[in-house]
Specification:
Blueprint lengths: L1 H16 L17 E7 L3 H11 L4 E8 L6 H14 L7 E3 L13 H4 L21 H11 L4 E5 L4 H9 L9 E5 L14 H4 L2 H8 L5 E4 L1 H4 L3 E2 L4 H5 L4 H19 L6 E2 L1 H10 L4 E11 L10 E4 L6 E4 L4 E5 L7 E7 L1 H13 L5
Parallel strand pairs: 1-2, 1-4, 2-3, 4-5, 5-6, 6-13
Antiparallel strand pairs: 7-8, 9-10, 9-13, 11-12
Bound molecules: beta-D-ribofuranose and calcium ion (CA).
């Protein structure tokens, strides 16, 4: 009872002092040069949609695609990434193989969702381009350190590669322009009640990344839930003569079908594509809020949860012997921006129009 009362007071105090949401990011459409990005992926159906969106977007200059085990084992993920760059006519983008296993926990793959091959068993020609000989971690380090402050990392799988790069090269986190990641949740999980899949699949790696000091935008489940692809969107893609559009329609069919089998009939959340959307144009986030995000690496029910401190303060306690009393509310520095409100209509239009367009000759 007492705890409830105290919490009520804290909540009120915190609300009064809560930082107002920052304006919705810098207006990226005015960028004069494309944003230079490394995509870190575990393809995966929505990873594939994200990669194709990125490869069709002139606002992004893709320096490399690095692959991590996640939705499928990394060897399959690399095969898929190579097929996708060829489909998009972007065989010049280096594709590198990354971590085979999470830092500490046992690998979890998701063929049940993404199909045995990770691409919904929707066939594509075998790739003719080869995997880059450099390990993903080395390639990330090489590209970032060559141009400090220039490269945005866009991880949309477990954060193993990024954490390993930060561990291998001290100071690297301070040299990335920013990290726009898909992962985490401030409102319940999809892998467990508490944890989102990318973070749950390597919580220890996520912990390293969130503590790294790099500027992070965390595109979490409440953000991606605002962006659904539905059956009604697929004919538009099917009408296009573009092989990319045809393939996206086929993937969309499988992806929506999975949601329907679970009883969700309003379509499937465009998780990974939304991270690409915000890399293209941060103003797609209508409301962005700085938070401190901690990753739970010990909890029995909460392993892999992204614990969000929205009010950027914690209570400090004074020891009175038989009890503590609250002595104040010291401020906490945010380590991530979380998009709270997405301009979903504009994002979906961006997604569909980029993917239905004719293939560049
Ligand atoms: C995330 O988990 C993966 O299965 C998807 O590709 C996405 O990155 C959503 O929780
Ligand atoms: Ca993914």
């Amino acid at each position: 009872m007492r705890r409830t009362e105290v919490f009520g007071v804290i909540t009120l105090a915190a609300c009064l002092a809560a930082p107002s949401p920052s304006p919705a990011g810098e207006p990226d459409p005015t960028r004069e040069t494309p944003r230079r990005v490394i995509l870190d992926v575990d393809p995966g159906i929505d990873d594939a949609l994200a990669m194709l969106l990125a490869m069709r977007s002139p606002e992004l200059q893709i320096e490399a695609i690095t692959v991590v085990s996640g939705n499928v084992i990394v060897d399959q993920g690399v095969r898929n990434a190579l097929k996708l760059v060829e489909l998009a006519g972007r065989g010049e983008i280096p594709v590198a193989m990354g971590a085979r296993y999470p830092l500490k926990r046992k690998l979890i793959t998701a063929e049940t969702i993404h199909g045995e091959d990770g691409l919904g068993n929707q066939p594509l020609p075998e790739p003719t381009v080869a995997v880059d000989p450099r390990p993903a971690v080395d390639l990330i380090i090489e590209i970032v350190t060559a141009d400090p402050g220039e490269i945005t990392l866009v991880p949309v799988g477990p954060l193993t590669n990024i954490a390993q790069a930060f561990q291998k090269q001290p100071g690297l986190a301070g040299q990335v322009a920013e990290i726009i990641l898909m992962g985490g949740s401030i409102a319940g999980g999809n892998a467990t009640a508490a944890a989102e899949a990318n973070i749950y699949n390597d919580p220890e790696a996520a912990d390293i990344v969130f503590r790294s000091g790099a500027p992070i935008t965390m595109v979490d489940l409440q953000a991606t839930a605002q962006t659904r692809i539905e059956r009604k969107h697929l004919p538009r893609l099917r009408q296009s003569a573009s092989p990319v559009a045809q393939y996206v329609a086929a993937l969309g069919d499988v992806y929506i079908g999975f949601a329907e089998r679970l009883g969700f009939f309003e379509g499937s959340d465009l998780h990974d594509p939304l991270a690409i959307g915000l890399a293209i144009d941060k103003t797609l986030a209508l409301e962005m809020r700085p938070m401190w995000i901690g990753v739970e690496t010990k909890g029995e029910l909460t392993y892999g949860e992204t614990v969000a401190n929205r009010y950027l303060m914690d209570e400090a306690l004074k020891d009175l012997g038989d009890r503590y009393t609250i002595s104040g509310f010291p401020k906490i520095e945010p380590n991530a921006d979380v998009p709270l409100k997405i301009d979903a209509e504009r994002f979906l239009e961006l997604f569909l129009s980029r993917l239905e367009s004719e293939d560049p000759s």
